[in-house]
Design brief:
5-stranded mixed β-sheet, two-stranded antiparallel sheet, mainly alpha, globular, 537 residues, 6% strand, single chain
Length: 537
């Protein structure tokens, strides 16, 4: 027990625990994934994923299985799911430290690398997010342990670990897991003496491991979609589609180069080493070479992908942490966290002044002003106080664990600010229960545009929530004058006053009676703005 309380990871977990317990499900992604998991539970079909009653082939089933496992253990709450993801994040830190220790046999290097990873603020923000990438990171690390088994000539165990990690990764997010692992294996002769001496055997067992992982995923995929359906849904749409011409989040090649330094704050502000240290570390150690081949080639390939989101890079951050941790072992390297402390002081002060500034600057919607005005001053004060501590304390800013925990604390306070200020505006329970009651009473109810499954989990809907395109709105209303029309979009500009307006995010959920829409002035459908699937907030 004493050893547990002395472990920095224990405090890291405690710091982020309030976020897991208090942060509501955030639209659009988290609410959609919870609805997919709910529909899996409600239908009793654990193979075929559905969203709003339609096949959902965007991702694998494993996250949704795990969500249902969490609900089985702790009840159908958001917090129990977040707690499970946070536990997976903690497991990733433990598995990662063990991985580095196996590669290098340097306990200090392994500890530094794990502390660096835990202190990446972006990782801390996503540590309890109900999304795929943190869970995928754990499975990538498992697969990398399989490659280290090959290096140690433990061939059978390596095949098992590699197959398990790849298989679980494929069931989580599809073929992208291969990109996170394949370069470490293909370029293994650069970091592994075993791979250099036994190339034929190395690449043979690697192929066997890939086949084992694919077999795990294909058993589910073929049972769910059939071979052709799996190929179209996962390989062509979700993988090739995002590479060539993304249907979502399309961004230029250089975008990740701009985002990565922000993602790895505070270390971009706090680590100092001469260029010769970085240059010498690139090839000086087996662990560094392992980290380089795990990060650099995959990062470049991700840059070529059309679809880009910051969290896609999360599984690559452990490899980057190895490289940085090795450089920090040099006597000329320094940790200087005062710049990070100054940043926290400024952010805390701005958060404190936000309600006052918003009222005087203008340009904010009434909902936005209400949200910002409702932010508790304590959040900004705590962030500013932490920044002041790093600036004033003579040694704290130069200690790696202190900076890592300070970064996790800042992330936790930021997410708790979000939960307190925005949380009530993302709660759609009242509208969702209204939809459920209407469905149970046989009353027609429809949503304009894609609602992304927003109401399925909070309303525990057991019937698909019908949607209608804007062009067909008045036809539907004429056919269902006793019905209701809902939308999370304000961009349509329907010229009839809604029966009910519910604040949602920085916009509104609008509800009309169909009869009112039929009687009132009609929207000019020929002059409508382009309407994509993103809520107008």
């Amino acid at each position: 027990m004493t050893k547990l309380f002395a472990d920095w990871r224990f405090y890291w977990f405690l710091i982020l625990l309030p976020v897991a317990l208090l942060l509501p499900a955030l639209p659009i992604d988290e609410t959609r994934y919870l609805t997919v998991a709910w529909e899996m539970r409600a239908s009793g079909d654990w193979l075929h994923l559905q969203l709003n009653g339609a096949p959902y082939a965007d991702k694998g089933p494993l996250l949704f299985w795990l969500v249902n496992l969490a609900w089985f253990l702790g009840g159908m709450h958001v917090w129990i799911v977040r707690l499970g993801v946070l536990a997976a994040s903690l497991a990733s830190l433990i598995v990662f430290e063990r991985l580095v220790l196996r590669i290098s046999a340097d306990a200090a290097l392994a500890r530094r690398a794990a502390i660096l990873l835990s202190g990446v603020m972006f990782f801390a923000v996503f540590a309890s997010a109900i999304m795929f990438d943190v869970v995928l990171m754990l499975f990538v690390l498992m697969a990398l342990h399989g490659l280290v088994d090959f290096d140690e000539r433990r061939w059978r165990r390596g095949i098992g670990m590699l197959s398990l990690g790849l298989g679980l990764g494929l069931l989580t997010k599809g073929p992208v897991v291969l990109l996170d692992v394949v370069f470490v294996a293909l370029l293994a002769p650069w970091w592994s003496a075993t791979a250099r001496m036994q190339k034929a055997r190395w690449y043979t067992v690697f192929l066997v491991g890939i086949f084992g992982g694919l077999l795990v995923a294909l058993i589910w995929a073929v049972a769910s979609f059939g071979v052709l359906g799996f190929w179209k849904a996962i390989v062509l749409k979700q993988t090739a589609g995002r590479i060539a011409n993304s249907f979502a989040h399309a961004r230029p090649f250089w975008w990740y180069f701009m985002v990565l330094p922000v993602m790895v704050v505070p270390w971009t502000l706090s680590l100092r080493a001469p260029w010769r240290v970085w240059r010498a570390s690139f090839t000086a150690d087996k662990a560094v070479r392992f980290g380089l081949v795990g990060f650099a080639p995959a990062f470049v390939v991700f840059c070529f992908f059309s679809g880009k989101q910051p969290h896609y890079l999360l599984p690559l951050l452990p490899s980057l942490a190895i490289c940085v941790a090795y450089a920090l072992g040099d006597d000329a390297a320094r940790v200087r966290g005062r710049a990070f402390g100054a940043l926290l002081l400024v952010v805390g002060a701005l958060l404190l002044a936000a309600p006052w500034l918003t009222a005087r600057v203008g340009g904010f919607s009434p909902t936005e002003q209400q949200v910002i005005a409702g932010i508790w001053p304590v959040w900004g004060a705590l962030i500013a106080l932490m920044g002041t501590f790093l600036l004033a304390h003579p040694r704290a800013h130069a200690q790696l664990p202190v900076l890592a925990l300070a970064s996790a604390t800042a992330a936790s306070l930021g997410m708790l600010t979000l939960a307190q200020a925005v949380g009530p505006t993302v709660d759609v329970s009242a509208v969702a229960l209204r939809i459920r009651a209407a469905q149970e009473a046989g009353k027609p109810i429809v949503h304009i545009g894609n609602h992304h499954g927003l109401f399925g989990f909070p309303g525990r809907l057991t019937q698909p929530f019908e949607k209608v395109e804007l062009a067909d709105l008045y036809t539907w209303c004429a056919a269902h004058p006793e019905g209701e029309v809902i939308t999370i979009y304000s961009k349509y500009g329907v010229p009839v006053k809604p029966e009910l307006e519910v604040p949602w995010r920085t916009g509104r959920i609008l509800i009309w009676r169909a009869a009112d829409l039929c009687r009132g002035p009609h929207l000019d459908l020929h002059a409508k703005p382009d309407a994509d699937d993103t809520p107008d907030t």
